Amino acid sequence: MLPTIAEQTLADQQATEHLAASLARIARRGDIFALEGDLGSGKTVFARAFIRARGCVDEDVPSPTFTLLQVYEPSLPDACPIYHFDLYRLDAPDDAWELDIEDAFASAICLIEWPDRLGPLLPAHALSVRLRPGTAAEQRRIQLAGTTAWRQRLQETGLA
Ligand SMILES: Nc1ncnc2c1ncn2[C@@H]1O[C@H](COP(=O)(O)OP(=O)(O)OP(=O)(O)O)[C@@H](O)[C@H]1O
Ligand SMILES: [Mg+2]
């Protein structure tokens, strides 16, 4: 398991959306956000706020529960695509090749729900975003874990 970089309590959904938007602002091509947590923990809420913060404000951001993948092409200058995966229904890691993961990892920003389904295909430089229940219904605990490069970036941008 990668070392924890930052951990905090999110009081409500708005707090989750705020943190997702902050990460969206520092994200760049090639970044992978591995969204971990049980059913209903807030992975799609996080992804939706992230995608909107990257400029996809007019679009619906449906959960890719059945499609496994939704691709967004933000209209901002220099913007790169966002690949939003929900791999809950992926039967085997190798099936992910059909979802264009090679291309996505190289030239997009990836948000991946249920990243454990990728097994060894999940790149080691992914930032792990772990959502857990808090002590109240609306509360979540969030943990960011990853490489030294991620630690540096998050510290430089005040997110750790
Ligand atoms: N602090 C919070 N952060 C995120 N979601 C919250 C929070 N408090 C309550 N919620 C609610 O929890 C639910 C999270 O649902 P969401 O679809 O994002 O879960 P998920 O992790 O994507 O689940 P799944 O594994 O089924 O895809 C939403 O109904 C949301 O309104
Ligand atoms: Mg979801």
TrEMBL record:
Keywords associated with the record: ATP-binding, Cytoplasm, Magnesium, Metal-binding, Nucleotide-binding, Transferase, tRNA processing
Highest taxon in the source lineage: Bacteria
Predominant subcellular localization, coarse grouping: cytoplasm
Residues annotated as transmembrane: none
One GO process term, biological-process aspect: tRNA threonylcarbamoyladenosine modification
Compartmental location: Cytoplasm
Pfam families membership: TsaE
GO MF annotations in UniProt: ATP binding; metal ion binding; transferase activity
Keyword check for Nucleotide-binding: yes
CC per GO annotation: cytoplasm
Entry-linked NCBIfam families: T6A_YjeE
Entry's family note: Belongs to the TsaE family.
Official protein name in the record: tRNA threonylcarbamoyladenosine biosynthesis protein TsaE
Organism whose genome encodes this protein: Defluviicoccus vanus
